[in-house]
Model the fold of this input.
Amino acid sequence: MARSDSFFIRATVDTNGVTYEQTSIDLGAFVDALGKTVMRIHSVAVQYGDPTNLPTPLPGGGNAMTAYQLTTQSQTDMVNAANRTLISSGKLVLGCESSVAPGSNNITSLTDFADLSPDQWRGGYLVAVESIFLGTDSVSNAICDNVTVVLECTVETMTASASMALALSQQ
Done:
């Protein structure tokens, strides 16, 4: 398989703290299953929120989470690793403890989890669909205002039958 030099694709989806949100990422310039061109995602870097925004402590303490997922099909909710459309997923978890002063609390923990990522696989993750989807959802409260991903990718050629079979398996 012939490979291109690596390039980067960036996408952002806004969080609303209440429901699942997603945005599509157009790969039509890189992927053409009939033309035997597919894309390999080698790594996914995630940024939670705008760089200058700090996570907001929860009123009264408790835990909150903002999660993301990258899929080969549009979704209406978060999916787990058993779903064949899932490329990558992770979450940012915030723990807050109530303080003795009325109405104040303290952030006790902030942890970033990468549940599934193409850089965990030896060869990355092959994509043969012309759009992928970046989704986010929150539990208890949105910790950040958006989630941004940066994908390191290459383009490859396959046989027509192999690229079409891969495309059909990801739809």
About this structure: The mean pLDDT is 85. Helices lie at 160-169.
